[in-house]
């Protein structure tokens, strides 16, 4: 599989913004990060493509950075609600096609969506939900939302009867309303496995479905 290099602008060099920038840069993507203060940018300068002291809420400054040419703009200023809103508005007005904004509260998330954010993340809330899911359902390796109605779930196959055997026999779409996207077996990744593919103990299966379907699936495989 060919990895597509992304061009990402991160606004805000706090813990969240720095983590996003470093992770993307280390994965080989082009990352530009800006912050009003030079100090938090210093540890990042040797890793990211470019680090600049700039006001992320200044529309003209974002235009000069070529914000409309980035694949994604991440507004990582959840600790400063007003600054996050201003940066989101400025980025959209300057031509950003996709803005992902960080929010600390439900209200902040709603406001950021209203002013133009294409996606809003609430890191502490989302991590709390994932931890709760893993505690309640140990078989679930990971889960994340895909839009408002769908979810992708990754499950370890141990000895659950609901997940052993050929996919055509298991009939997961009919029984649960979920589709198998991929299966990891050891070092091998099987993408879109066919009906004759048989799930074995030790496999890790990734499925997608509406939230109510994945919930039912989780309850079944989690015992």
Can you put this structure into words, describing what you see?
The chain is α/β, with parallel strands linked by helices and about 220 residues long. Helix content is about 35%, strand content about 30%. The chain has eight helices and 13 strands. It has a six-stranded parallel beta sheet, sandwiched between helices. Strands 7-8-13-10-11 form a five-stranded antiparallel beta sheet. A two-stranded antiparallel sheet has the order 9-12. Strand 1 (about 5-10), helix 1 (about 15-25) and strand 2 form a beta-alpha-beta unit. It is elongated. The two termini are about 35 Å apart. The model has no long low-confidence stretch (mean pLDDT about 85).
- What's the CATH H-level superfamily name of the largest domain? NAD(P)-binding Rossmann-like Domain
Helix content: 25-40%
Number of helices: 8
What is the CATH topology descriptor of the largest domain?
Rossmann fold
Task: Kindly report the oligomeric state of this protein.
Answer: single chain
For the secondary structure, the number of strands is 13
Strand order of the largest sheet: 3-2-1-4-5-6
- What percent of residues are in strands? 25-35%
- Give me the strand/helix succession: EHEEHEHEHEHEEEHHEEEEH
Average predicted confidence as pLDDT: 85
Summary keywords:
223 residues, Alpha-Beta Plaits, six-stranded parallel beta sheet, five-stranded antiparallel beta sheet, 8 helices
In short:
By secondary structure, the protein is α/β, with parallel strands linked by helices. 33% of the residues lie in helices and 28% in strands. The mean pLDDT is 85.
């Amino acid at each position: 599989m060919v990895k597509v290099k992304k061009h990402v602008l991160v606004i805000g060099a706090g813990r969240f913004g720095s983590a996003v920038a470093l992770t993307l840069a280390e994965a080989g993507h082009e990352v530009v990060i800006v912050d009003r203060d030079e100090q938090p940018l210093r540890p990042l300068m040797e890793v990211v493509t470019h680090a600049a002291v700039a006001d992320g809420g200044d529309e003209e400054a974002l235009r000069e950075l070529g914000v409309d040419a980035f694949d994604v703009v991440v507004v990582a200023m959840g600790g400063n609600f007003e600054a996050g809103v201003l940066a989101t508005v400025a980025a959209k007005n300057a031509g950003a096609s996709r803005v992902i904004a960080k929010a600390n509260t439900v209200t902040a998330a709603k406001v950021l969506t209203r002013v133009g954010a294409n996606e809003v993340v609430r890191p502490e809330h989302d991590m709390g939900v994932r931890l709760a899911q893993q505690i309640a359902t140990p078989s679930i390796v990971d889960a994340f939302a895909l839009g408002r109605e769908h979810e992708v779930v990754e499950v370890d196959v141990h000895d659950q009867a609901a997940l052993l055997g050929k996919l055509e026999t298991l009939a997961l779409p009919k029984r649960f309303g979920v589709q198998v996207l991929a299966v990891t077996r050891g070092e091998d990744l099987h993408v879109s496995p066919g009906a004759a593919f048989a799930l074995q103990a030790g496999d890790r299966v990734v499925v997608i479905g509406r939230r109510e379907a994945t919930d039912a699936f989780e309850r079944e495989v989690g015992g």
